[in-house]
């Protein structure tokens, strides 16, 4: 491998580790609750992954990054590391599913040949809309309902939908998606909102991007 192939994933790995470090500092010294530091890491890692199609040329580089951090996250659950991510009062598979879905989306993006939207839109909806839904549901817990024993709220789902519409419209416009653009601006938010509601125990980290990627594959 050439330096151009080695350096970018190492720089990105350092950025991810720095983000984890900031979350740990906020948790241990800033006394920020794990629910908040977890969301900071969730959004931050999502935004960092937007660089993958721009600076990484091979799926092997992405596999190295995602595989490495999957091992770190699994070890953190086993040995009690990274409480800024793991010290929550519920069972969640979200953190370990995230690197898996990122790698899968990168492979789909490479194979599909349908442009950056196939990678960017699922990641952005997951990184931006999911935390907003959780925050809205906690701040304004209206219309509570349960899916397989896991609590959800109509207010959280509404916040997710509104944010998903905004993200979809912005991404479609910025990437110049004219064909089927209007259809995407409705079908993607609706599908993603249903997927978020059904995604229990952190499974929405899988159901949201997978459903969005499926819609893009079918519509574009």
TrEMBL record:
The chain crosses the membrane at residues 6-27, 93-111, 117-137, 158-177. GO terms for molecular function: ATP-dependent diacylglycerol kinase activity. This is Phosphatidate cytidylyltransferase. Keywords: Membrane, Transmembrane, Transmembrane helix. PANTHER family: CTP-DEPENDENT DIACYLGLYCEROL KINASE 1. InterPro entries: Dgk1-like.
């Amino acid at each position: 491998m050439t330096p151009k192939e080695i350096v970018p994933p190492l720089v990105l790995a350092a950025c991810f580790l720095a983000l984890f470090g900031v979350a740990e500092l906020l948790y241990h010294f800033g006394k920020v609750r794990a629910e908040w530091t977890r969301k900071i890491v969730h959004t931050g890692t999502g935004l960092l992954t937007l660089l993958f199609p721009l600076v990484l040329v091979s799926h092997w580089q992405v596999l190295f990054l995602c595989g490495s951090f999957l091992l770190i996250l699994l070890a953190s659950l086993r040995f009690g590391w990274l409480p800024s991510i793991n010290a929550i009062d519920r069972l969640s598979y979200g953190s370990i599913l995230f690197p898996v879905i990122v790698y899968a989306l990168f492979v789909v993006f490479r194979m599909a040949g349908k442009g950056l939207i196939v990678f960017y839109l699922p990641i952005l909806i997951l990184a931006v809309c999911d935390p907003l839904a959780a925050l809205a549901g906690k701040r304004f817990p209206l219309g509570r309902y349960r899916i397989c024993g896991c609590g959800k709220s109509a207010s959280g789902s509404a916040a997710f939908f509104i944010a998903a519409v905004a993200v979809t419209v912005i991404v479609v416009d910025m990437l110049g998606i004219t064909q089927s653009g209007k259809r995407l601006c409705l079908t993607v938010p609706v599908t993603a909102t249903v997927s978020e509601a059904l995604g229990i125990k952190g499974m929405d980290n899988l159901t949201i991007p997978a459903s969005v990627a499926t819609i893009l594959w079918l519509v574009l």
